[in-house]
Design brief:
alpha+beta; 2 domains; twelve-stranded antiparallel β-sheet
Length: 294
Amino acid sequence: MRPPFSARPRARAAVRIAAAAALCACTTLAAAQSGGLPATALPGLAAVPKPPADLRLPGPDPRDCGPSRHSALCAAGRWSQFAHMETTVKAGAFTGTYTMERPANGEVLTTYAERTPGGRRGGEVLLLADDAFAYRTREQLPTDDDILDYMLSAPNMAMQLVAVLLDEGVLGGPADVTGRIAVSAGSDAQYIRTETPTTAALYGPPWRVTGTVRPGDGGRVQFSLRFSFRPVDPSGRLARGRTETIELSGLASFADRRGAMPDSLDLVGWKIVRAGRPLPAASTLAQARSSVGR
């Protein structure tokens, strides 16, 4: 997502260097012919230092996360620290419903269900360790090396987007939502970026979000958001003259995370993978933990 900037400034500099070298050569030759200073051989253009490979302008890239007001906005605030979130994303004919639970022991349980005019996809993924996970789905999946990215990119980035929009649109954190609060925010300059280790999505300016948050059952916060933005093409450039809209709704819990999911969690029909290699099936979470050495 970080295409290089134009190399033209560097090219113009190289032309100026070449012109200066040619001028010096002509001046020295003229002096020698007039009986002045002896001519001295000048280095050729091959001796001119080559420009660096990275020709981007100095300063922060507005498409990258960072603390500068010129950097992209990313999920890093209080609204990203949820213990549990459920969200439904609607964009045109696409609908995606995602859930994520993050216990204190580092395991993460994610579900996804997506519907388009072309079909449906869905599944569940349980991260057991840095190099181990369990999953089930009826989809035809890529190789085990690509499963996590294929199954988890959309849920992760949808929830990051919710967190960024709530960070920007709500004055205060989740604990401050004691009644219905209007959500409103926007920017004419900053991008919003969501990302996973191998995938990133950019939402270009100008963007606007409106909606509401309010208390839900069991201390949860309910949200309903309408987000409009300029789409960004695969090369990282804003699509001119286009605006797209996404609707996001759901709920999130920011209470203390439970220590772990129950040992008795049913994993019948799930596949277990560690370091890219399949492991024997397990009928419960306790057995799966044992098989990956936890």
